[in-house]
Specification:
The chain has twelve helices and twelve strands. The chain has 363 residues and is of the alpha/beta class. 50% of the residues are buried.
Amino acid sequence: MTLFDSPSFANHEGVHSFFDEKTGLKAIVAVHSTARGPAVGGCRMWNYASSAEALEDVLRLSRGMSYKNAIADLEMGGGKSVIIGDSRTQKTPELFRAFGRALNTLGGCYYSAEDVGVSVADIAEARKETPYVLGLKDGPEASGDPSPVTAEGVFRSTLVVARRLWKQDDLTGLTVAMQGVGHVGGYLADKLHKAGAKLVMTDVNTAVLSEVASRTGAEIVAPDAIYDVKADIYAPCALGATLNPETLDRLTVKAVVGAANNQLATADIGQALFDRGVLYAPDYVINGGGIINVASEMTARQTGGAYDADWVEGKLVRLMQTLEEILDRSATEKRPTHQIADAIAEARIRAAADQKAEARKAA
């Protein structure tokens, strides 16, 4: 299978591969769209079974970032990067400095930040070699770890769904089945617990799982058992595509509200959820808090200003309004929520591309 034959290729502007023999860096950067501005999206380090699997992941993730950045109304395009390797055993400062040098060759069309398997400290190492990284912890413009803001957006989205389905302003009496309690999931678990939810959770990292469960009073289940939990809300907060033909019939929930990217294995799963009366809060809408936080850092860097928490809060409020619009339109138009969200994002990207084309003509 070639790149252009991939089912995940979606008119990407560029796909770049990098190898550094000295550090062992094997990375792929996918730039989906720069219509709204430089492509921005995190770097994921994962022990992929093959380079083909890594390519599929970065293609899907980068397209998702274009939609996420557009739906959050940010002046940024969409991109993503992946590093092939085990983040627990193969991560070194030298590897991330090599990654930074690789980013330099793209000339600023793509900015990276942290994602699964990559920390703020790793991005700081890359920053020693390149200006094209975001999510730093030092300096007046630094936005730091985006995970808490991502979790806040997902939490607020959960409250939006609770008001619609159960007519309540908190989560008292509701059970949430959480898949993954890492960077974002851990923060989200604390917020859900404080709002009154009963939590049932799983994670492949048993040490982290035990720690989060102990402070939230959660029940722990085996990774595969999470789909069979009798719950009101399923919250996928690990890797994507967990909503698929194998899991769909096992879920008994009324809503899916989670932080993971690309939760739907295929678009028809979204239709199937809608047909079954399950409210799906589109992943790239509700998990946009982190990229909003990162966008504030980019704006501050461009203007010479500082990180602006009020600006981030304003964007989060607007994002929740967009979610409400999507849910309203889904009910009125009798269409799945993911289709409504895609239409809004695509319209915004298309408008930006048209505007740039007109500007080129005028020049």
